[in-house]
Amino acid sequence: MRTMSGIVKFLRRNIVAYMFLTPWLLGFFVLTFYPMIYSLGLSFTDYDFTKPDSTQWIGLGNYLKMFGSVFGQSEFTASTGEVMRVDPYYIKSLTVTFAYVFVSVPLKLIVALAMAMLMNQKLRGVQFYRAVYYIPTLLGGSVAIAVLWRKLFEKDGLVNDLLGALGFTDLPGWITNPKYALWTLILLTVWQFGSSMIIFLAGLKQIPQEYYEAASVDGANKVRQFFAITIPLLSPVILFNLIMQMIYAFQSFTQAYIIGGGSGGVLNSTLFYTLHLYIQGWTYHELGYASAMAWVLLLIIGALTAIVFRSSKRWVSYGVGE
Amino acid sequence: MKTSTVVRQHLARLIGERRQRLENNMKTSTVIRHTLTHLFIIILGVFMIYPIVWMVVSSLKPNNMIFSDPGLIPKAVTIENYITGWKGYAGTSFGTFFTNALMMCAVAIVGNLISCSMAAYAFARLKFVGRGFWFTVMMGTLMLPGHVTLVPRYILFNTFGWLGSYLPILVPKFLATDAFFVFLLVQFIRSLPLEVEEAAIIDGCGKVGVFLRIVIPLASPALVTTALFTFLWTWDDFFNHLLYLTRPEVFTVSRALRTFVGDAGAVTNWGGALAMSTLSIVPAFILFFALQKYFVQGITTTGIKG
Fold first, then answer.
1. The domain containing residue A30 runs over which residues?
2. Cα of A195 to nearest chain B Cα, Å
């Protein structure tokens, strides 16, 4: 009898818990797990949204289409016997995205940390300053700001007006010049350092003031204190910010899409990975190829996250006294 | 008076004066440092929000002056841009776009509040077989780039006949796909004192009762944060709106703003574009200043976006 009631209790407890979990579980299986497997399968086909009935298995065709140009090929024969063209812009989109991520993320974090340290003093009005500095982050991801950015960095835009007033001449159209277009997007990203700054600020407040006092009694100057106290004690927060910002940056889309007017900009200088994926999938309807691109993106992000995590054993310290 | 006493007194005074001077120096140097810091923060701050202020001001300038006048004080003020911009796209006005976006955000908030709090309660408080496993899976989806599920979702929603409607954007909200909020709520519910819930259970309250009558009210700060960020992210989202909202009648504000930018990136009605852009950031501004403390909590727990 006792075990019976125990079993009933156990069952009831689990049934109630899984009832609470049902929406999430349903979402996970229908909208995440099944689509992931499905898109992996699609990535080996030439699925076209407009003619799904003629879908064929093409093996690694989509992957060759991406990376064929690395081996100096412009076309290859797929397993169906069909001759496929290598995607001439894929590698370009990859380099643009890597350049964007590897420049904008460290810059953003450095600015965010510097500002957080500046605000981590007993200053009047810090609350207000923090709010003002967060405003670009609050609005930066919107279409509105992307439209504004286009206006700011055009040949006759605000930035050139201001630079012209300072005496500069022969100013380029920043957005229409392939040399600078990506930099306007990097600037737009760095401009939104607000949330990283707030996270750093919360981390800095956790560091006991006594450490700094003790260090200055021992004769350590500010620079030494920064590298010996601030950085090590803040390292878990830095790791968190770095990974989140990196994952996020790889998926940037809206700003490049709006600023490039729905394309990769002049000479594809702002052809972000996700933008290229969108164009392949939804302008050319090649959803099989888009799936393959998505999986490669997942692998890239996964690999980089793993590398950062592995390296973190060397530079992240948890707790004092290590 | 002995000479030694005089000397000692003199020395003591000297030392005292020196200390005073040092302290004064330090005070002055702190004041100087703080003043410089203030100055730096203010100048940089002005520089940072200048573009946004300029956008608001320029939206009130006559169209031909937007190009010629980088200053903040308009030489002439007009609401013409708001009138031409409001006309919208393909016969649908921004009135419709704003209504669409607000309604969509409202439903999205309801969906996230219900589904994420249910999942969070299970993860934070209930014991069940596979809890650790599912929690790890949930945390994994937090970092998963959405593009890897994009194509099959699109195909799926197409077979349901949902393209061109809000369902592809709203239905996932009722299925707790925004793992950030589940995580945020789990963290918050775990931090609540257990005693109240235990007392309620002793009094014969079931888990559902505990959830509805105790956990939900106590978790309201985290729920406000969830609602707030759901609004902002749904309002600002562009990619999903671009994919699924294919007819002008169902456009949201962010989807509609894109219509100001031509396919080659050229903008014909800059005044209208800036005016509607200005209007589109008003809700975020109001929420930001009304609910500031919830922002900090949301940012420090979830830490993504921007």
1. 1-40
2. 6
| Pick from A35, A41, A37: nearest CA to A55 | A41
Q: What is the pLDDT of residue B264?
A: 66
Residues B30 and B143 in one domain: no
Q: Are residues B178 and B268 in the same domain?
A: yes
B211 contacts A36? CB cut-off 8 A: no
Separation of alpha carbons A151 and A158, rounded Å: 7
Q: Kindly state whether residues A300 and A170 are assigned to the same domain.
A: yes
Contact A123 B34 (CB under 8 A): yes
Query: Same structural domain for residues A59 and A147?
Result: no
Put simply, the answer to whether A27 touches B177 (Cβ < 8 Å) is yes
Cα separations in angstroms, B40 against A127, A138, A188, B46, B110: 16, 22, 21, 10, 43
Classify residue A321: in a domain, yes or no.
no
Q: CB-side exposure of B251: number of CA atoms within 13 Å?
A: 20
| Residue in A closest to B300 by C-alpha | A199
Q: Which of residues 184-223 of B touch A (CB under 8 A)?
A: 206-208, 211
**Residue B34: inside a domain, yes or no?**
yes
Per-window interface: B 115-134 vs A, CB < 8 A: 115, 118-119, 121-123, 126-129, 131, 134
Domain span at B34: 3-81
For the stretch B46-102, pLDDT in tens is 999 999 999 999 999 888 777 667 677 777 889 999 999 999 998 999 999 999 999
Tokens coding A88: 């001439």
ipTM metric: 0.92
A174: tokens are: 């920043």
Residues of chain A with pLDDT under 50: 321-322
A240·B303 Cβ contact <8 A: yes
Number of residues that this document lists for chain A: 322
CATH of the domain at A153: 1.10.3720.10
Regions in chain B scoring below 70 on pLDDT: 1-3, 67-68, 70, 264-265, 301-306
In a domain, B86, yes or no: no
